[in-house]
């Protein structure tokens, strides 16, 4: 259905342009917390993106001509999309609850436009990149680089690179320290509580919880739940993370050792089939199951689509799956990511990510010919530190400066970088 | 507007009877966690109540004929009220967002019904009791007792008692240990996070927060926010609570020492005018202000209703109050209780409270003539322990029993009570 | 062996007067933290005491003529006793490692002195009071009151009172809120770690620990160990404390459910035979067993004095008890109180206790005839708050004062007391 | 002074051979916790070492002929050294409280022995390596490699390597994940509390503390003190660590902002002159100052050796430095490392480090010619994971194994390594 914004422009596809005012207010609320200024000169650059909405306006203000599709069929806030469409600077093709077909249609509408050719790709998950590789490979001739922020997307890029098929430089911003810590540890520490509360109103105190995976996401979830008085068990495959879980006070178990007794099961592994039908069969009545990890592969939801089980949608994003004996499992977001589907990402975290992405875009765009080859790069440590330093004033935090004598003693430049690359 | 439930009964007044199915589902979800069985014989007893909805059905099942009005103009969940109305056993007069007049009208509809006379009052805040005192004092002749669960209501009862005007026995269930800890410490530890997230999506990490009051509610709020990485300051008037705050790692300050620097202000005092216009004038842009304490007196909201300030409703329960220089204060729930308005009370906490109330009702109803005089009583310690013990199986918690030798050594009965009355 | 201090005075009995200088330094270190001033006029009062050393000098400075014996055969610091003896104002009869006979001999030397008659008793455990009852009952004619600070001593006083045998007023300072919280919760939170480290150097991270008893001491121990990364189980007999343990995130078990798997067993019950031979038989090799609770009854140490078990003293206060199969249990302080035997009580806690005791002494001494009968009294709430307020400046803590309007609203005096008596 | 052990061997130099029995008991206590078995075949290899004592016996048991000198003039436990000397397999040249000259003399006695030539160096700090470079460079011809575990030693090796002067392969075990986390984060989380308690008996609750540096050591110190109820401020030079401190709930300040108000100052920077005379002049009376970081450079202790300040040794490792106005600063360990001087390293941490060192030694010793060049290497990730997995059984921790399908999905070998090299 064709809609137009108040300026008569119709080059977008969203749920409802009338929600623009409400969305604009949401953006303003976000900006209350989103205080980082990216101190850069404006430049004109056509940009394709499937990245969070907040970044779009900043990039437009810097001079980018952005076209934007969603990276996930549920992650779009319709009101915010409407506000962007109404603003008119970013072309938006996204709504909450797209079908699989819608999803690819939106991406295609982003890319395939007459008289416009992107020179930068800002991707989140790699679907946009994948689409261009598949449908419009010639576009890469004019593209200066790809900035990718997700585990999956980065994984795909490394595979392309290994296969010798990567035809432009790519920046892996997923693994910058600042972005990692915020997206995973700090954000999930809060969103696990938020997501569970909004969907189930469960009380955390005294609950027994098993968290599968003790990476950054798992660490955040465990710390939050422990602080709220839950008893937390951890499963791990990596002995180093396993030992960390022990030292942080969590019993390290195999899933089947505790599956009968736990009240909540949370997956944070990045793996597939971590919770399978056999586990689900043994859970107790009322057990809550959700995924904080990756994609929708961690819980084998397909195994629950069998005739003897009844599904009952009790709230948005909450299904009761009912066994023949009456046992109910509470499945959240149909096994998709809880933090994307059932909680919001704090604007401060978006600001960290967006700043990282923007700096990476600028770095790739401005880099002299030849600095970056057709390979995947980590964000330079110094830029990582720069992103962090831009966010310190929010906390009224005062950094100490090295004296000349100290810098010399440590063998460091007074302006950083301050740590080796592997430092987290 | 007259509505009827599916059985043709119209003795209720709620928002929309069509929401009954949805509400029934909500109740079922609650029952997933609300597992306590009150192991009592059924009895028939007409009951007036302004207490949480979940209790009503239990009491009905026990044989009570209940009529129910809301205790707060915002606290009713319309769907749940509809489900109760549809069920037909409890007469419901309540909806979310009643006016002051509606509120008293509902109470009157509860009380003033031909051919029905209550013999027990279950009150929350004392308004129901107050109304009967004022309008239908003769009703007390047949009333066997009052069970009251709020600070305010208890306060009123003690005043009646002191003035020699209390004409039936009353049970103060507010000050039972179990109920206190859950309603205040444990519940607020979770609801402060939930309430702030649902309204503002604020990230807690690194935020500076001042919590006014370090009673049970304050302790819960401070512990939760500290665990989420906030920097928390506390104000107190009582040196004992103040010293506890120090020992728990919070800087004890006067409000004006930190008011310019904090990101969030939370009141938990039970006092009035704890945050006044002068404080609000000095807060920084974007500061969030909310009340977890009592009534709506803690923040002097009236002082913000002046011509030079602009109010902007940005979301449900969220107002921006805008100063002439553009500074915005984010006021939640117009200074009313955040945990009642913007978060949900976990069903487990409702179960604790409801069990305490039900036991108190039964105790008063069954007590032999003369055991209770026209006075205010605390729930007997042993019943308090009984409420706790009924909730232990939820956690698969295994209590240790005293041996005869140990009981003798300690001078205790093996079945309790185990602690002196002042033990918390 | 007769010793004299540098002034030629020999009315004391300690280990070694030559340690006086070292002990004086220890006292000075303590005074660095022990900053409370008790702002009172000096008065002359003969005093008997078995209380901590630090208080003695303060009381002497206030004009008391003190004679002091130890309350525990291990708790005396010889150097500090020497310093007091050298100072000459307090007569000291105490050393570390007294025999049972020594213990009573010291008490008798305190009491039984020609030309001196006490008018106040400051007791800790009730042995001193017991001795006078037994040997010198006539002394009570001139005694104005007893101040008692221990659970045991208070228990004995209530029994005397119940039996109608208490012949002077007694003040139970053990149950004042401030004293309780510091002596138990806050102090044990630190001393459990300190005591275990000094004796065993054990690493807490990842250790499985069972804590028997979740009163204030148990709460302190559990919180500290959880924070250090231990996995903590709790046993309880009281359902209210049990539920608190659940909500604080501890699995509530019976001892035999976890006894095979734990690394550390800690008793904090005030009960007897909490850990018995059967439990000890099932512990795993290397398990550490200690008592934070009360007296030396909690662990049935006597049951370990059997021929098939070998005891090996590996360090001061540390025994390995060795089973025939080579299994070793690490028993600390022979089952006596770990915090008294193997760690130090922070001077700040001593200051709280000492201030409470001093105020109670002064209250009893100064009270007009007839205010206190031959009964056991709790410290008045207002004095309890006063003790707390005297210690706030140490933390640079700033108390908020009620406005007149607020005091009226709350129905409180602006100077307190601020809480009901049962508030903890 | 020449001593001989019971077998008549005199090739050692320690404090007192008579302490051997006591030291043997200490070692046995340690072995209670030190349960890792290094499952390797014995081999004969002459080894020079300045590493912890516990490792020596293991290496001897594996067939190494070890000679050992201390890495720090205070870190030797005389009794343990005596036990090793008595055992006779390790030649020991070390005692607590060596002078600077003693220190180098001991190292020389280790190295310079007729008819013996080392083929591996196990160093901690680089002094041993330095001495051989300086005095016996020819020895390197037969040396197969250096294993170095300290920051300083590793720094020196990288400098040698950069300068092209490194003449054998070297393994940097300091930066293995497992070793880092345990030596720094987990160990310091406990030893900061232990070190402060043993020296000062300070109560942590309510104390204001500034921690300089928020690396792994700082993170451990801050977490422990926060958990004990201290109010903690952090200083940092690195914006990434600074942001982490903010998100963990610590105010980030410059030292001079809080120096007047804090009760305790802790340095954990690895830097020099972090606390200088100007800071010390402004501290309040009774402030405790200590170093958890590195060497003895962090606090400018030399600046306190001036005539107007009086030093008073109040206990072992505790000095009062007294200003003309009577102000006292409590300086611990004369500014040397608190955790080495005033607390013990848990045997579990020693086990982690020792296992890492042993595996690195074996790797270098067994490596085929040419695998390692004259360069500095990190411990291979897989060995790092192996060290971790060897320590899991202590915690009864059960690792989950990848299914074939999952391993394929993740692109991992089922036996690891599981994470990229930069993962911490």
From TrEMBL, chains A, B, C, D:
The chain positions of domain S-adenosyl-L-homocysteine hydrolase NAD binding read 184-345
One GO CC term on file: cytosol
CDD domains according to UniProt: SAHH
How does the cofactor attach, per the note?
Binds 1 NAD(+) per subunit.
Report whether NAD shows up as a keyword of the record: yes
Q: Which cofactor does it need?
A: NAD(+)
Query: A Gene Ontology biological process annotation?
Result: S-adenosylmethionine cycle
Gene3D superfamilies in alphabetical order: Adenosylhomocysteinase-like, NAD(P)-binding Rossmann-like Domain
Q: Where does NAD(+) bind?
A: 215-220, 236, 339
Q: Keyword Acyltransferase, does the record have it? A: no
Identify the InterPro entries for this entry: Adenosylhomocyst_ase-like_sf, Adenosylhomocysteinase-like, Ado_hCys_hydrolase_NAD-bd, NAD(P)-bd_dom_sf, S-Ado-L-homoCys_hydrolase_CS
Which keywords accompany this UniProt record?
A: NAD, One-carbon metabolism
Against PANTHER family, the record matches this protein to: ADENOSYLHOMOCYSTEINASE (PTHR23420), ADENOSYLHOMOCYSTEINASE 3 (PTHR23420:SF2)
The record's family statement is:
Belongs to the adenosylhomocysteinase family.
Query: What is the protein's given name?
Result: S-adenosyl-L-homocysteine hydrolase NAD binding domain-containing protein
To which species is this protein native?
A: Salarias fasciatus (Jewelled blenny)
Phylogenetic classification of the source organism: Eukaryota, Metazoa, Chordata, Craniata, Vertebrata
Primary gene name: ahcyl2
